[in-house]
Design goal:
Blueprint (H helix, E strand, L loop, with lengths): L1 H42 L4 E4 L3 E7 L2 E6 L2 E4 L7 E3 L1 E9 L11 E11 L4 E8 L4 E3 L8 E6 L7 E10 L7 E9 L1 H9 L6 E5 L14 E3 L3
Parallel strand pairs: 12-14
Antiparallel strand pairs: 1-4, 2-3, 2-13, 3-10, 5-9, 6-11, 7-8, 7-10, 11-12, 13-14
């Protein structure tokens, strides 16, 4: 009886040892798979998104048109690699009734910041950096204020089709966001009258009063 009990105990120990070894092996395999998955995930190229703001700022500096854009540039996936935005371009094309008008040649002049005076309730712009490449990663999203300038060009009343293009490193395709802009006669007069003191005017694409099909999500002067 004693020998039988010892045999049963030894058999149970062997089973438990086998289960333990199997469980340890399975855990190691799972850990290896997760490690490989995480490693592969980190090796992926950053997936960068660009989102346009609901507000553009536009004005004239003498005879030169100024267009201020503050997009959000972010990465949705955490990777070891980062993305580098090396250049920014703004295109604005007159369409419809003004399609034959001169097309502006905008260039990225600089990066700036906005200062708010709570007493005067006034927003002013100031330079903060020269146009230069910047890094985007998941833990470091960017929200630069681009100032684009077109020399000796002014707005005409009508509709414009535009796009913001951010060019990345050579092996990656540019990031492009399209938009439309509607300039009323009143808005054009405002902009022209403010050219001497560099006044800046807001255009939005989210105001309820401009939700009709006529505007179709275009940026419109908020006081129109």
């Amino acid at each position: 009886m004693t020998g039988s009990s010892e045999g049963e105990a030894a058999s149970r120990r062997n089973v438990l040892d086998a289960v333990h070894k199997w469980a340890a092996t399975a855990a190691a395999v799972v850990a290896l798979a997760l490690s490989a998955y995480n490693f592969a995930d980190l090796q992926e190229q950053p997936k960068v998104d660009v989102t346009l703001p609901h507000l553009f700022r536009i004005g004239l500096d003498g005879a030169d048109a100024h267009f201020y854009v503050q997009p959000t540039v972010s990465s949705r996936i955490k990777t070891q690699d980062v993305d580098v935005i090396r250049d920014a371009h703004l295109q604005l094309t007159p369409s419809g009734s003004i399609s034959s008008s001169k097309r502006p040649d905008f260039y990225w002049k600089e990066v700036g910041v906005w200062d708010f005076d709570p007493v005067k309730e006034f927003i002013s712009y100031r330079w903060s950096a020269d146009p230069a490449p910047f890094i985007v990663s998941q833990d470091k999203p960017q929200q630069p204020t681009f100032l684009f300038q077109a020399g000796r060009w002014g707005f005409q009343p009508g509709r414009y089709e535009g796009s913001l293009q951010l060019r990345r490193t050579a092996e990656r395709s540019p990031l492009t966001k399209k938009f439309c802009l509607i300039m009323s006669e009143r808005a054009v007069k405002e902009i022209r009258s403010g050219a001497h003191d560099r006044s800046i005017y807001f255009f939005r694409n989210d105001l309820p009063k401009f939700a009709s099909r006529k505007y179709s999500g275009c940026y419109v002067r908020e006081t129109d």
